[in-house]
From TrEMBL, chain A:
This is ABC-type transport system, involved in lipoprotein release, permease component. InterPro entries: ABC3_permease_C, MacB_PCD, Membrane_comp_ABC_pdt. It comes from Ruminiclostridium cellobioparum subsp. termitidis CT1112. The lineage of its organism: Bacteria, Bacillati, Bacillota, Clostridia, Eubacteriales. It is found in: Cell membrane. Keywords: Cell membrane, Lipoprotein, Membrane, Transmembrane, Transmembrane helix.
UniProtKB/TrEMBL annotation, chain B:
PANTHER family: ABC TRANSPORTER ATP-BINDING PROTEIN MG467-RELATED (PTHR42798:SF2), LIPOPROTEIN-RELEASING SYSTEM ATP-BINDING PROTEIN LOLD (PTHR42798). SUPFAM superfamilies: P-loop containing nucleoside triphosphate hydrolases. Keywords: ATP-binding, Nucleotide-binding, Transport. SMART domains: AAA (SM00382). GO terms for cellular component: membrane protein complex. This is ABC-type antimicrobial peptide transport system, ATPase component. Residues 6-235 form the ABC transporter domain. Belongs to the ABC transporter superfamily. InterPro entries: AAA+_ATPase (IPR003593), ABC_transporter-like_ATP-bd (IPR003439), ABC_transporter-like_CS (IPR017871), MacB-like_ATP-bd (IPR017911), P-loop_NTPase (IPR027417). GO terms for molecular function: ATP binding; ATP hydrolysis activity; transmembrane transporter activity. The lineage of its organism: Bacteria, Bacillati, Bacillota, Clostridia, Eubacteriales. It comes from the Bacteria.
Length: 785, 235
């Protein structure tokens, strides 16, 4: 068969150009690896989350009351669109250890638990009196086993003993953070607990609820239900109703999914794009170099379709080989890497990776399509030529004097070698541009990756040095009535007071809750900046909100917000407030105002937190132990600890960026190797002639190296601004609800890619010295092929 | 009665290089009969190769008719031309033009597989004296051997005509002579029409017909009633 002979040729061609075959396969492997790995992981996370929320029947709305009787809670069932309701009492109790006081968020759980169903991992539900179910992370941190007894302290009763009947996970608390600042969650200090309604009543002394979970009918209008709840609860101590998006764990989890989703949509495509450009360039030049062979086949009367399929065969072969290897690596290695990271923060019972074959198929298709397209287009051009023409060497292009040549002063001073390089580059403009294009893509991608890495570091840096300028955050148990009379080491510290309460904004498309941070105008330990880096002072007329929040709801300075205080102590008090400034907040989204502003709205919220800056950093230990040793202090958080926690929370992202950088380096190495290798194979005869003329190998090497280097430098000049543009555009698109990446092009995010590119070019050329050495003068000149 | 096989009627070929057009062929007429051994003589650039390329459907003329077996091949479409190249024509080039990554045998096998009515590749290679080199790659063969593979490749297709473009151009005297001898033997044995291009007028006596080309025109057509064996010719 003709095909089988050509198949032999195909295999031998591959063997002859092993280096290029491997390089191009690697390019495809990287593309497929990223594509399949990312889409598989994001898809799995998405599907898992949806199933998990459906199977455990996650509530649609959380109606909050100061106190509601089970009978009144049941009445909410009559609201149109409500399928089911389940009341519960949620309260934070403490557990005291020698050097630690932890918080357990207690939930009473109905015997017939139908909404927010808990997933028992070990043991049984807390159906018996005085039994408790803890979340697995808290239990693990404290080495609790089923059957152990724990003691808790409550405002109602000191020392309540409860027996652990089981360990669980809840879809409501996939991320067990106490509040937005507790991310990544600290499982040692905060846990989730479930007890029966009778046990809870035993602690509090009476049976009542403060939260009603609402399971709405599919497609029901949640806003209408929220309004009805407020209507029905007019005479009750109703506070507010939150939807899923307003609950902390759900918000954080979905934003994690959204992050994965965004990455999985954009990054692999960029990768495949770069890979496609490289495949395209390499294959079309590879086929160009086979021009005479195509001419011979044509002269022999081989049908065009057969010649075409021979070269398409190479593309398919390479595409499938790379695509399959990349997909396997992506499914196994990539997903495992990210699974470990995600599981460290998010509780996902029973989360395993399923392979979606259409991701793999899509990756294979993409791998093959670009190759086929490139081969087809190059083949067509050659096949359109007459066989007699194709068999001849391409006639040399008319040599026009280059711009530099016209400048005789400069030209006469160049060495013969440099003249040759310049002529080569300018005569083969197309080849030079093709080569540059590959390198340009790589450099742009490297800048994106390094820029990303820099932004992540900068995000932490900015938040913890520019925004937070304090060293310690000390929270007192009781509100501080007068900070002047506080017993503190005034000679060692500077301090500012901070009050904090939660609010819901009620006049936007969704109800949304925020931390309202109340502090003095003079407070310079927490600073707000606008997007140009200008410091924004607080004033007594309005609040400062986060830029993302403003963008999402199209708010601008001067707009009015309806704020409702969530804390039951305020009895649902609400007031209007003006937006006086909009600040960039890298982590979290908070609202800042002054006590004077609040008092205008007739609200007082005494501070309970001190922001402390040590005067003498060497005494930091003393200050810390002074506060942590006091009985009236609830907690002392060092900024550096929080910073470390945040860093580890962003570890997932960091790992991804490292994978990104490694892939970008591999990609550019393969691309540059390929381009340099083709530059040699295309010019074997020319190089052989130089050898015949007695050029020393090192001189030939220098010529090639200089030419490739010239191309690399040219690419750097074009690729660098392109990379910066890519970085800015993509990072802007990657803004998440609780994370804004500062866009800043640092010197090293440009310098590293440039150094890497130059280094890779050098290494590739060193590798290719062997290829030049191997050129056989006689063989190359003997026949025109 | 000898049958007319090929007829060139007022064939012209122009190449455009930039704004200048060069007439490679300027009204070429000649006929070739079945079984003839034809030598086309001419200096470099006279238009010999253009004639051969056009006859072999590797190139198309600007105007004129080329009748092969009663059909005008200038009217053929791309597909018919490919079939014509595959079945009717066997090419031998100055620089052999073998496919580098196929062995001697595979090169021949590859070529014959476009036509059903072909000869056995191994037999043909043995006949040209390469029975022991079947599995060598072109790079492992000498120039003369490579040209024999090329001839075997052309002959094995069992084509209507064998077109040889300076087949000895890259070979030494002795090797070149043995290649010509091989071609003459093939012509005698198989009665295949062979058209050979050369600038070496000394070998003209080996042909049945000698066509001289000069500046894109036919200078003369001479018929040798008694052609000589190449063995008797010295130059």
């Amino acid at each position: 068969m003709v095909m089988s002979k050509l198949f032999l040729k195909l295999l031998r061609d591959i063997k002859d150009y092993k280096g290029q075959f491997i390089a191009i396969t690697i390019v495809i492997i990287v593309g497929a690896f990223f594509f399949v790995g990312f889409s598989t992981f994001a898809k799995n996370l998405n599907v898992y989350a949806n199933n998990y929320f459906t199977n455990t029947n996650l509530a649609d709305l959380w109606a909050n009351y100061s106190k509601i009787s089970p009978e009144n809670a049941d009445k909410l069932k009559q609201i149109i669109g409500v399928q089911n309701v389940e009341g519960r009492l949620v309260m934070n109790f403490n557990q005291k250890f020698d050097d630690l006081k932890t918080t357990l968020k207690f939930h009473s759980i109905a015997a017939n638990n139908i909404i927010n169903k808990i997933t028992i991992i070990e043991g049984n539900k807390p159906s018996e009196f005085q039994s408790i179910v803890l979340d697995t992370d808290y239990a693990k941190e404290h080495s609790y086993k089923v059957g152990d007894t724990i003691k808790i302290s409550t405002p109602f009763k000191e020392d309540v003993s409860l027996k652990i009947s089981g360990l669980c996970e809840s879809s409501e608390y996939t991320i067990k953070s106490r509040d937005t600042s507790d991310f990544p969650p600290n499982h040692k200090e905060y846990g989730i607990a479930y007890v029966s309604e009778d046990t809870m009543a035993g602690i509090t002394g009476e049976k009542y609820y403060n939260e009603v979970l609402i399971d709405a009918a599919p497609g029901a209008d949640l806003k209408a239900i929220t309004r009805s709840i407020a209507e029905v609860s007019k005479d009750l101590s109703y506070l507010y109703t939150l939807n899923r998006d307003a609950t902390l764990s759900y918000k954080q989890f979905t934003s994690e999914i959204a992050q994965q989703d965004q990455f999985s949509k954009v990054l692999p495509l960029i990768f495949f794009g770069v890979a496609a450009v490289i495949i395209f360039l390499t294959l079309s030049r590879l086929i160009d170099s086979q021009r005479t062979q195509i001419g011979i086949m044509k002269a022999l009367g081989t049908r065009e379709s057969i010649i075409l399929s021979h070269y398409l065969g190479y593309a398919i072969f390479v595409g499938l080989a790379g695509g399959i290897i990349g997909s396997i690596l992506g499914c196994v290695f990539f997903t495992q890497l990210f699974m470990a990271q995600v599981k460290a923060i998010i509780s996902l019972p029973g989360f395993t990776i399923h392979i979606y074959y259409y991701h793999v198929l899509l990756a294979l298709l993409l791998s093959v399509v670009f190759g086929i397209l490139a081969s087809y287009m190059s083949c067509r051009t050659i096949l359109r030529e007459k066989a007699a023409e194709a068999m001849r060497i391409k006639p040399p292009k008319k040599v026009k004097k280059t711009l530099i040549e016209r400048n005789t002063f400069l030209w006469s001073r160049l060495s013969y070698g440099s003249k040759l390089i310049l002529r080569n580059v300018f005569i083969n403009k197309k080849r030079a541009i093709y080569s540059s294009l590959g390198v340009i893509c790589c450099i742009a991608f490297l800048i994106l990756s390094f820029g990303y890495k820099g932004s992540r570091a900068l995000l932490i840096e900015k938040q913890f040095t520019e925004v937070y300028k304090y060293d310690l955050r000390v929270v007192y148990k009781d509100p501080i009535a007068d900070d002047e009379s506080l017993e503190i080491p005034r000679d060692q510290i500077d301090y500012n007071t901070l009050a904090q309460t939660s609010v819901v904004i009620t006049n936007l498309a969704d109800e949304k809750d925020f931390n309202l941070l109340i502090t003095n105008k003079e407070n310079n330990f927490i600073s707000n900046y606008d997007n140009k880096g200008k410091l924004l002072p607080l004033d007594d007329d309005g609040v400062i909100i986060a830029e993302r929040f403003a963008e999402k709801y199209k708010l601008s300075i001067g707009d009015i917000l309806d704020m409702k205080l969530i804390d039951p102590a305020y009895n649902g008090k609400s007031f209007k407030t003006k937006i006086s400034n909009i600040s960039v907040q890298y982590l979290n989204q908070e609202i800042y105002c002054t006590p004077a502003f609040l008092s205008k709205a007739e609200v007082t919220c005494p501070p309970s937190t001190l922001l402390i800056k040590e005067k003498d950093p060497s005494k930091a230990e003393d200050v810390y132990s002074f506060f942590s040793g006091r009985n009236d202090v609830k907690e002392v958080k060092s900024k550096n600890d929080v910073k470390k926690l945040t860093e580890s929370g962003l570890q997932n992202l960091y790992n991804m960026i490292i994978v990104l950088i490694v892939c970008a380096i591999v990609l550019s190495s393969a691309a540059i190797y390929n381009i340099s290798a083709i530059n040699i194979t295309e010019r074997v005869r020319e190089l052989a002639t130089l050898k015949v003329l007695g050029y020393h190998i090192s001189k030939i090497n220098n010529l090639i190296f200089a030419e490739n280097f010239f191309i690399t430098i040219f690419s750097l000049i074009i690729g660098t601004p392109l990379g910066i543009y890519l970085y800015k555009t993509i990072l802007k698109a990657f803004t998440l609800d609780n994370m804004v990446f500062p866009i800043y092009v640092s010197l090293d995010s440009i310098l590293f890619p440039i150094i890497i590119t130059i280094l890779v070019t050098t290494v590739c050329n060193l590798f290719l010295r062997r290829a030049v050495k191997k050129i056989d003068m006689i063989e190359s000149l003997k026949s025109v092929e | 009665m000898v049958k007319k096989l090929i007829e060139f009627k007022n064939v012209t070929k122009e190449y455009k290089v930039g704004e200048v057009s060069i007439k490679a062929l300027n009204g070429v007429d000649f006929t070739i009969d079945e079984g003839e051994f034809v030598v086309i003589l001419g200096a470099s650039g006279a238009g010999k190769s253009t004639i051969l390329n056009i006859l072999g459907a590797m190139d198309t003329p600007t105007s004129g008719e080329i009748i092969v077996e009663g059909k005008d091949i200038t009217k053929f479409n791309e597909k018919e031309l490919t079939t014509y190249r595959g079945k009717k024509v066997g090419f031998v080039f100055q620089f052999y033009n073998l496919i580098a990554n196929l062995t001697a045998l595979e090169n021949v096998e590859f070529a014959v597989e476009v036509t059903k009515d072909h000869l056995d590749p191994k037999d043909v290679l043995t006949k040209v004296g390469l029975g022991s080199r079947l599995n060598n790659f072109p790079s492992q063969l000498s120039g003369g051997e490579q040209q024999r593979v090329a001839i075997a490749r052309a002959v094995a297709k069992n084509p209507l005509l064998l077109l040889c473009d300076e087949p000895t151009g890259a070979l030494d005297y002795v090797t070149g002579k043995s290649v010509l001898n091989l071609l003459q033997d093939i012509n005698t044995e198989t009665k295949k029409c062979i058209i050979l291009i050369t600038h070496n007028s000394a070998i003209a006596p080996m042909a049945d017909k000698v066509i001289k080309v000069k500046s894109g025109k036919i200078e003369s057509v001479v018929i040798n009633p008694n052609r000589q064996s190449i063995k008797e010719i010295e130059w």
